[in-house]
Amino acid sequence: MTGTQPAGRPRDPVVDQRIAEAAIGLFGEQGWAGFSVEAVARRAGVGKASIYLRWPTKQALLLEALRRHVQGVAEVEASDVRDELVQLGMQLMRHYLGEAGRAALRISVEADHIPGVAEHWATIRESRVLAARAIVRRAIDRGELSDATSVTLLLDTLCGAVMNHVQATPEAARAKLLPAGESYVVRLVDFLLPRTPVPGR
């Protein structure tokens, strides 16, 4: 729910973007407990009135920031399951290491306790789950994976490992993670996928 367009002078999209960036940065650092319109205004270099003209509540402000900076996983499709899982893993790696990475990690934990934001995050979460599960289902249909493959366990391991890899890396070393990220994701996917042909295929 974004604020309504105020009468008079048109809104400046540059200011809108600066406020949204300040909001996503503050939430990433402080979480919901430290999130306030006053703090966002100071960080963005604008008055509180400028924010309230755009978004009537701090929930609406955070929701707009999330809409701009924390997106769902794009659907991937390649010639085989290995390439698709590598693409998925790299999307997650870039997601958590991007400018909104801290906010993405926090919202995954705090969203259910923020009225008006929980529903938006649930939609993003569902889109991620569906896109990821489609990868494994296609692989089963193509005969690359056994019918007995646990979709949940495979994806939990891949997605959880990427998130843990980012979180477990000291802040000072995270800048080096993305350049080496593909190598990590490739090794992770190779570890997860079966090394023998699927029986009966």
UniProtKB/TrEMBL annotation:
Keywords: DNA-binding, Transcription, Transcription regulation
Feature: DNA-binding region: 36-55
HTH tetR-type domain location: 13-73
SUPFAM superfamilies with a match to the protein in the record: Homeodomain-like, Tetracyclin repressor-like, C-terminal domain
InterPro entries: Homeodomain-like_sf, HTH-type_TetR-like_transc_reg, HTH_TetR, Tet_transcr_reg_TetR-rel_C_sf, TetR_C
Keyword field contains DNA-binding: yes
Entry protein name: AcrR family transcriptional regulator
Top-level taxonomy: Bacteria, Bacillati, Actinomycetota, Actinomycetes, Pseudonocardiales
